[in-house]
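On clarity, I found the account of how folds are encoded harder to follow than it need be. Since the whole study asks how a given chain folds, the encoding of that fold should be made plain. For illustration, here is how one protein appears when written out as sequence plus structure tokens:
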Amino acid sequence: MLTIYKNSDERLIQKSVIHPNHLLLLIDPNMDEINQMTRHFQLPAKFFTDALDQDERPRLERDEHGYLIVLNLPIKNPKAGEKHEPPYITQPLGIIHTDSNLILVSRQHHPLIEQLINGECGDFQTEMKTRITLLLFKAVAKAYDDHLGYINDAAAALQQKLRASYQNRELFSLIELSKSLVFFSTSLSALAILYRQMMQGRTFKIQESDRKLLDTILVDIEQSAEVAEMRRESLSNLMDAYAAIVHNNLNTVLKALTAIAIVMIIPTMIGSIFSMNVALPNEDDPATTIIVATIMAGLSLLLILFFYFKRYLRLH
């Protein structure tokens, strides 16, 4: 869907015809809309199809009639909750600069785009292509920081559940969080490379004041990349520790069950001997039953004490 925006009285209004200095928003465009854009701006179709590719990484590509900047935005996974699906993933956003217009291309709506249109990212005029781009860069850095906070909170909540859990559900949840951090870490590293390339000013011409803003954004992205990597390592260590705890708990339970089985076997064996149809000494004496029961109870008590002091019957 193509939406055209133009400034009017300090707000954006929608227009029906493309004119210079309009901001164009393409959300999940069909081939007719892509062909319309390529003909109107003389741009290669891959500028639009690449921006719609879910696996596209951040990069900068130049053409004689414009250039494409691909960013990765953090989003909540629409398939979150399904098996092996991470809670957060990244979504590409294409920013296409032409001589007369700025075009934003995305496969689906993203809150960050809505914030830009609503003026929550900062004031701008639709002809300010560089400023709009830098506002998006800044918003992307904040979005990553926010989502890393969400992941940290989720990991902390899971860590509390792990203390008393013997199930695999929490471990799988940690694995899925780790997958999200891999997505974020990869995208943030690529964004840092892209921003350094743009700082050189060979392809993306920026003013000195904008360069300072881009430098600040680069620092934020690099910090977020470091945080993502640290939290990924922390989750990996937590999963290793949890696996060791589960293994230790399993061994403890097995030792307790083995000890209980041995304690039960002794009276069972003695009782089996006296229940056979074979003549035994003093089997007619009433005291024999009391003596045998006392021996079974004594042996069982001795075994219980032995296993208890050997910590076989303790689960903690």
